What does this fold into?
Amino acid sequence: MLEIIDICKTFNPGTINEKVALENVSLTLKDGDFCTVIGGNGAGKSTVMNAVAGVWPVDSGRILVDGRDVSGLTEYQRAPYFGRVFQDPMTGTAADMWIEENLALASRRGKRRTLRWGVQKKEREEYRQLLRTLDLGLEDRMTTKVGLLSGGQRQALTLLMATLRKPKVLLLDEHTAALDPKTAEKVLETTDRIVGESGLTTLMVTHNMRDAIRHGNRLIMMNEGKIILDVSGEEKKNLTVRDLLQKFEETGGEVNDRMVLS
It folds into this structure.
């Protein structure tokens, strides 16, 4: 479903600030794979995510989604293929619009706009049922402005919006990093449920080693713009945080405080 083939990215080339962010990175995700990505600061995790989403072009290499080469497409041209949840709960929703209006925008992604009434009665009932699955009471607050919601509520809503029309690939860029532990756990439970029910191909970046092990069926570790570890199946199921720390050090990775304290 997602093929990343030998992509390279260098920021500020030829200057004193030159930074090789990705060096011949290749990764293939099959339909339904849930892959977690872990690594230290500057390892290349978010750079891979942004390269896939089209935030910036890669210097070389190709990116294919469901067999189609999207390497030359802009970010908005790739949008129909991806659902994305960002680290910042303030990103991904329109704060001054109602909950139901945000869902309506997500529902119409990739479709032609018309001048008909924004939210239909049938749609409103559909949104109410979807919100009820979050178990956050949002189904009774559909005309509340999203900017009045808590960070956890906004992230749960963004996750719902990103998957409302099944994307080819779901991109989760440290989507619980800004939340308190209890709220983060709730959002991750919701993530597992939605991904499992819809069979979504998912790429999740995280700093939390425990989350990287517990979620998904595959784990990759990055350091200095390269993939240094790729485990799946029984090997991943049997991993512990201690094992992961040891493997990270053995393969030349630099463990930082954020990874350990997480």
Remarks:
- The mean pLDDT is 85.
- Strands lie at 2-11, 19-29, 34-39, 60-65, 68-69, 82-85, 169-173, 201-205, 218-223, 226-232.
